[in-house]
Each structure stands twice: as C-alpha cells, then as structure tokens.
Design a protein that fits this description.
This protein starts with a strand and ends with a strand. It is mainly β. The protein is built from no helices and eleven strands.
C-alpha cells in the first residue's frame, strides 16, 4: 500500500504561482512512477504531468507545458508540481497518483491516489 497526501493548493490570482506537494508513505517510493491529474466541476479527470521512478524522465500535458513542472525527491518521498502563470482554466482539484512501472498519462493505470487539493485561480 502507498498513502499519498497532497498539499499546497489554494486561491491565487491569474498570473500567480503555486507549488503542490504530494508526500508518500508506505512502500518504496522510488519504485513508483508518479502523476498529477486534475478534475474541474462537471469535467472528467485529466492528465497534467507524470515523472518516472528516478525523476529523469517527465511528460506534461500540452495545456500546461512551459508553465508547470513536475519533479520528485526520492529521499523525501515527495513529488512536486510547480505551477507558474496560472490561468482561471487551471482551477480544479489536483490529485497525485502512483503506479508501478513506466510513467503514464492514463488515470486508470494508476493504483494509488491522494485525496486531492483544491486550486482556484481568480481572474
């Protein structure tokens, strides 16, 4: 079992920045690829970013590329999502997730999920 706890969400004005954190406990964190997803009201959960087990390989959704960066610190069992130039359309609940194996954009391929953290961007 892997337990994931997100933090760092909040209310920010458009153009602002936030850094989300996801602390993991349980099984060996460095064995898992990690992902960030988000879900806005009335919409499906969508891929934001993912990182491989080592942190050396990442992938970001086109909608956030150049503004968001995923990273991880295996010594701290934590994955981060640094968000810059936030837009109102980034408003959503942000979830981190873990999976054994390669990184993935597909939510159903992730085995463990956090409870989510709300990000609200005002215009």
């Amino acid at each position: 079992q892997v337990q994931l706890v997100e933090s760092g969400g909040g209310l920010v004005q458009a153009g602002g920045s936030l850094r989300l954190s996801c602390a993991a406990s349980g099984r060996t964190f460095s064995s898992y690829a990690m992902g960030w997803f988000r879900q806005a009201p009335g919409k499906e959960r969508e891929f934001v970013a993912t990182v491989d087990y080592s942190g050396s390989d990442t992938d970001h959704a086109d909608s956030v590329k150049g503004r968001f960066t995923i990273s991880r610190d295996n010594a701290k069992s934590t994955v981060y999502l640094q968000m810059y130039s936030l837009k109102p359309e980034d408003t959503a609940v942000y979830y981190c997730a873990a999976r054994l194996g390669w990184r993935s954009r597909v939510p159903s391929e992730y085995e463990y999920w956090g409870q989510g953290t709300q990000v609200t961007v005002s215009s």
